[in-house]
Structure formats: C-alpha cells, structure tokens
Amino acid sequence: MTGPITVFNYTVYDIITPRGTNYFAFMCWIGLWSLVMHWALAITNACNGLTYVTRFSCDIFGFYVAFIYLQKGIQVLTREWALSGDAGAYLSITVALLVLVVAYLCAVLGGSSLFWRYVRKFIEDYGTPLTIIFFTGFVHIGRMRDIHLPTLPTSKAFFPTQDRGWFIHFWDIHVSDVFLAIPFAVLLTILFYFDHNVSSLIAQGTEFPLRKPAGFHWDIFLLGLTTGVGGLLGIPFPNGLIPQAPFHTNALCVTRQVSNESETGGAKGHTTRVVDHVVEQRVSNLAQGLLTLGTMSGPLLIVLHLIPRGVLAGLFFIMGVQALEGNGITLKMVYLAKDRSLTGATNPLSRIRRKQAIWYFVALELLGFGATFAITQTIAAIGFPIIILLLVPVRTFLMPKYFTDEELSILDAPTASPFTMESVGGNFGEDVDALPVASRGNDRPNYPEGMDAGDSIERGEAGTKGSGLLRRKSSHKGGNDAINRENYELQPQPGGAGGLSRRDRSRSARS
Fold it and tell me: What b-and-e string marks burial along 380-391, b requiring 16 or more CB atoms within 10 Å of the CB?
C-alpha cells in the first residue's frame, strides 16, 4: 500500500473511533461502496479523463508521496525514545542513515561504469534488500547487541495482526454508519482514481518504449474488486504505487551506452544510457505477489520480526530520496540552481526565452505540493484527494493563460505517449498527425544525437530518467534482429534530442 492510503486509513480511524463505531466494519463498508463506484467509473469510461493529466499533476503527486515516505521515516525514529530510550533512539537514527547512504550508493554504483555489467546490474537491483539484511544483523555486533531496539511486530502465520477472524462482520454496525461511509468511499475512489492511474501513467511514461497497450478501464474495474475484497478481509486497500511501480519498470529496461557528440567543450562525447526496450511480462508481478504471501508463513515471519524499526525508517528514507531525485520538480530546481556557463546547451529548459516562466512554473508546483502536504497534517487530511484532483483543471484551463504554448511544451508534457493514451482518447490538445512519426507510439526508437545504430546493446541495465529512448526493430516472436537503418530517418524531437521515425509506415507495419 502507498503513503496516501496510510494517511487515509489513520485519518478515518481518528474520526470515527471516538463515536464508538466499529472501525473494521466501517472500513469494510467504505470498501464495498468504493467497489460500486469503481465499477461505475469503469463502465462509464471515466478513465478518459486521464487525457488531461500531464507531468505537472504527476510530478506534484510524486513529490508529495516522496515526502510522505520521508515523514513516515522520521515518525518511526521519533517514537524510538519512548520505546527504547536514548541509546536505542540514537542507534536507530544511525542505522537509518547508514541504510540510506549504503542503498543510495548501490544505486549510484549501478549507474556507473565500474565493474562488469552484470555486477552493476546485480548491485543496482538487489542492493537495497541486501542492505536491509546486512543492517538487520549489524545491530547485533559488539556492544550494540546490549541495546534494545524495537523490531517489526508480527502475528501468527496466515493470521491477522489482531485476534479476529479473516472475514469482517460488516453487519455489526449501525445503519446510519453504513450510509456515513459513502462520503468516505467517494474520497477513497477519487484518491484511487488519481493515485492508481498516475502510478500506471508514470510506469508507462514516454521514457519507456512499451509495445503492449494500456488497459486503464479494466484496471479500475479490477481495483474496485480488490478494494471490496480488502474491506471484507479487513486489510489495507491495495492500489498502484509511486514510486515502486516506475522503479519496477526501470528494473525491466534493457539499455545501452551511447556517446552524445552534440555537446560542446568538455562535455562532448559524454556517455549516457538509453533504453532499448522493456521486458514486458507478468512473471515478476506474480512473483512479487507470491513472495508477499510467503512472508505470512511462520519461518519468514520470524525473519521479519528480526528487522529493527530503524532499518525500516532507512527504507522509507531511501524510497523517498530516490523518488525525489528523479522528480520533475527536483530536476527543474536543480537547473535553476546551476551555473549557466556549465549548463549543457541541449537541456530543453535552455530553450525557454522567458526564464521567469521556469520560476513561476516551479512555484506553482511547490504551491500545489504545499497545499496537499499541509492538509494531510490536519484532521481535514481525509479531503486531500480533492486538492490533488483540482490540480488537473488548473493545469488544463488556467495555466495556458499565463504561459505560452512553447513554454508549456518544454516545462510540461503528456505523461505517456499517444500509443499508451490511445484507449482513453489520446492526450488533450495533442495533434497526433502533426507529431513526428517517432513520437506517436512507444514502439519507435528515439536515439540521442551522435548515436550509432550499430552500437552493441548493453543488456539488463536500468534506464535513467531523462535519457533518450531506443527501440529495437524486432519480430512478433521477440527476435533480436538488428536495427535496419534504412527504415529510419532523423527527426527533431521535443527536448532538443534527435529521434528516429519510420520512413515507410507500411514497411513498419509489416515488420
């Protein structure tokens, strides 16, 4: 489950428990009402509203979720004084920071040129879980073993955390509370409509050359089903995750190293990684679900119970930091803080003539984030999905009055490609016929300037945000045939990087 649904759950608890209402029964009714609303959204094709969602809203929401993770990590550590005293609290803080630093260095090492490719990939993908395992044992070394550290609470195998059955007695509630759950279900549905769909959009972003089409309407239908089942079982409502979903797609990317000859001076020939293709399959998601189910078994529950809460706080920190690092708001603020003489000319933001527009745009993003984060610190936190949803019409109808189309095309952009958005009516205001052929679908390669199509592919490396995309021409059987350069021509792409488009559409369709 994600940070926002955690905020929703404990806010509902704070509101209804003073009334003497059965919390689990009330949450069950929220889930059941939300199931009906999700199915109504799916039947009425309400996901077509995603056509208005751009990076502006997604970046603000991702920024908010990242700070929720950081906040939860801090809250875990602040409780250590009451649970384990000064020594335990300071040790927990030290361990949390060490987990953050080591896990972050693993990610940095994975994106470097050190060691063999397979070693880098292993460290990048498994560095964080290995860090958690190491520091779980680290606290038992030397004098640290004498310091009491609270660990993760666990229950009996395949049993709820409380002494109750798996099935919630949803009839054990007053009739008025059944209908009181409706407005809460509306807010939950709004949250899931945005949270899950934005997670899906970012995981299918323009930086990922996907071949398989999206299924937004079917997803929202299934999400309603899992929400209702979650209510009946008394477990947190599951939905799409930020930043875990994009991290998963990143891990499935096959990349290659290319040299960018378009830079000048010392940056000329700088090597960067571009995405060749994404390994699209269902095995990894299924394996994640089965492993989660496996953690409810007796032996693994014993292992989980060994993890100190300080290590958990460090995990929250690394998730928040990594989400912030690749967020569009962070990248714009870094650009504004850079020395202009050392900023690459190919940076898309350098093409904006009115530099105040960048400051105004970032200020609006931070204002949206601040309003969302501030309301979650109050009893009115239950209404934060409304603020998130209002960001969409603000971007669509108000911001074009103060920013030019050229500025918005650089500062903001559709989250996903026309190929991904086809099932919801495409991106708002985007003329697909006017786009370069390479931009119309994620199955088109997008090379940065200076890349040679004959370069060898570096398999199994996670792509970096902001890099160009590369798509290999392959058969329907997933063959590894080489790129046929006669089928492509260079086209100018948004962001200043050269791309590749099909020269012959009919030949493309046959291949």
Answer: ebbebbebbeeb
